[in-house]
Fold each of these.
Amino acid sequence: MQFVSIPPTSTGSPEREINHLRNDFGNDSDDLDSLPSVKDFFDEILSHTYEKPVVEILDDDDDDSVVMHGKGKERAVDFKQTNQTFDLEDKLSLQNTTKTQRGLEVEERKRKQEEATREKKEIIEDRKRKRIQLAEEKKRLKEQKQLEKERQTLYEKENRLRNDRNEILKEMILDIHPDFLESTKTGKLLEIALQKKEVDVQNLLIQNPHDPAYTIAWRRKCRSEWNTSSQSFIPLQKMKIVNESVVLVYVESFQFVQHIKNNTVDDYINRIQQSCQNRQVILMIEGLDSYYKKKRLLRRRQFDSQVRSTIMQQVSSTGARKRKNRNHPADEDITNGPEPAVVEECMNYLQLVRHIMFVLTKDDEDSVSWIESLTTDLGLGRYKSKNINNSYRVSKSGTDPQDTYFKMLQEIQLCTPAIAKSIIYAYPTVQSLHQSYEIKDKSNGELMLADLEVERSTFKIRDRKVNRVMSKKIYTIFNSDDPEQIIY
């Protein structure tokens, strides 16, 4: 870039003008009176006008010189070494400062934008994380609620009333001796009957491989446990198998009477009790009534035979042929077997002394029916012994002492709302009723409520009274101190 000076239009430079003024004033410089005053001197200078030099800027990237044109003179000035009147360096430095400030501002804006973007991302990620946590918490609460609902359902299922006998049978496991299933008609019928009802039947020798002396043992599939504090069954996470405390020994009547005849009953019972591990023994005897009947029939036949033999002896003199008495081998066993009285005496001994329970059946079908009934009763026994049938439960609690007193009286058997209202009308509080009982003796106290009139529900007619049985029952409930007393 070049700066070119253009010559001015005026006729002289300021230096020539000053010399001209000097010539006008003359060379007589010693004469101080001929010099103009300061005011006149500056007025004379200011009255002359001078053309300003024109600077032309030539664009040339290779040459950074400035060319100025004046009158009769041309000079080239280096831009970098000359201090110009319009101070281009200040402008350039100002421009550089402006650019630097703008760059800093741009960088600051970028930094703020990056910070804002980062903060926005953090906010978005935080919100996303919170949404995920909220969703997980919601899912966890939902699963917990579902699990609690399943627990409640299972709890209600385990504590509901058991009335279906087939469902009870499915809870039981029967361990049966294989010899009983294969060699007896009763065992084959029992297996068919249990399969129809989907009862789990297993081999007894698997559970007790030491050849047990009993025939059937019971086990139970327990999915809950009885809690004495809450008086309810608590569901278990895992099912467990529990042995029942009862075993059954199947024996035919002929085998049992042979033990009595041979006087080996005690040895037989000892062997059974040793193998059953202190469990209750039920001795099922099949056909004992048939044995009694055959015994009576053979006794009658013997009597008839004796009568006939007597008659034949009387007519033997007439030459009649004597009839031979032929007995069947089974009849001989029954004939030689113990009498019914002896059998009954032995059974009484086993019941009272050896604590053996007896089940007497007629035939194989009756035995199968009894085994099914025993299995069902054992299954129900677990629930019958616990207070889960809710037979004693107040439907609603009282809203106030008067209403609670009213509902409490109705918990007494056969105490109707009308009777309870009559008692409350005469004795408004429990304390007043109890104090009235205290001032009377037992005979008068038992009949204290017998004269109270009972209002009927229809027509509001007072034409009946509390009966003596109800009066005595209420007195017993309020005054008895015997925890074993049974109140009917």
Note: The first helix runs from residue 14 to 25.
Amino acid sequence: MTIKHNQQIQHNHFRKDWQRRVRTHFDQPGRKSRRRNARLQKAAAVAPRPVDKLRPIVRCPSIKYNRRVRAGRGFSLAELKEAGIPRKLAPTIGISVDPRRANLSTESLAANVERLKAYRARLILFPRRSGQHKKLDSSKEEIAEHTKEGKVARNTGLVLPITNISRAEAVGEVSKSDMPEGTENAYRTLREARSEARLVGVREKRAKAKAEESQATKK
């Protein structure tokens, strides 16, 4: 039976022990120091490698946000092929790979290929075992130079950042002198083209009827 009108709620059980079910978050300062110590321990464990992997530049989805760029999941296989990096080698040298991703424009492909080439030019590969240098490993002079001077980067995102253009750079004024010829009355041109496309059948019918009428009068 449903309740109608503004009547009293029957059998209201509001005697639950809610104090036992309240959770507080007074340990945030301790958690902050714990997270910082964990980051330092991770950086020390993976040193001299950076703590993060290189990620591609991708566009945000939807019309509202596609003007912005952000870090993607991984580089596509086409981008790795253009940059000359084997797909099985890429994860071992700090490059994230996403085999499901596809490039929808040549601009994104070129931008990420340049990003890969810039990363590859900066990369210093240490030998896995001391004294056993392989083909792709860096020379002893390069390794000694970068380790002594402290040029090892701890974060890839700081060395190769992903930046968006500012609002002032994105929006600009276009003067009439900069516009190409024939585009002064763009709105009127569009309206005339739309009108011609709509009335093409009516005008053909009218011209055909006029031609038939003129032929009938000649006879």
Note: The mean pLDDT is 86.
Amino acid sequence: MSGVYEEASNRFDHHQRGFAHVFGHGFNTKLSSAGLVYKHYGREVVASLLSLDASHPDVEVVYLQVYKHFIEAVDAVDNGIAQWEGAAPPKYLNNTTLSSRVGSLNPKWSDDSSDEVLYAQFHKAVELTGSEFQECVTYVSKYWLPARSYVKAALESRFSVDPSGSIILLSRVCPWKEHLYQLEEEMAISAPGTLFCLYEDESEKKWRIQAVSVGPGSFDNRRSMPAAWRGVRDQALTDLTGIPGCVFVHAAGFIGGNSTYAGALEMARQSLTMD
């Protein structure tokens, strides 16, 4: 730790008094050394991994998303920034973060902690972190980014699915939630916005009705499926709803299933008005 942040000499420490740099682009988490290096060299690294010129628009999109989904959490953990407001303790422990996994490579208190051991474990940490970083870049560029077009098409055709405009139909299963929130904002879709998303489960060849949460990562829904349906399955659910082909409604009310598109659509439509 040099106590110096100086790009010209490739010194990227963040421990010094008065350091308050952030990534920008709407991100306000104080940077760690990892975030500093990514801020200055991330575009070049992403461009290299994607085999694209650094000026390509996809590079910028992936660069920002990788910060959001990978680097920002490292910055926050390193700087001791909690994920929640207030002094309440967490409801559960999460020891599966990248920082936790890297930390577990440190020698335990009663183990050999010689320089040789530390150096060997450091290389394991580099390999672990590098592989997960590359996996994140691959996911964002190859799977997350292409899904945007499917979600946009679903939003543009939402009124053909239901006159309310609150039900969307995905033409294929893809990562849709984060795109949905961004596109609703870009398209100035007013409240209540999208309440349910329909798609076919390609493995089971059955249809799913999924409630839209209030925001990314939230377990609270804009509107859940009816309370009377929750935890009920198969013929009992069909008898209760009067809708043929019902498969299930989850006990938490965030997802349900039907054997046909028509049945799934009717379950979503009734969910718009039933509590």
Note: The CA atoms of residues 67 and 73 lie 9 Å apart.
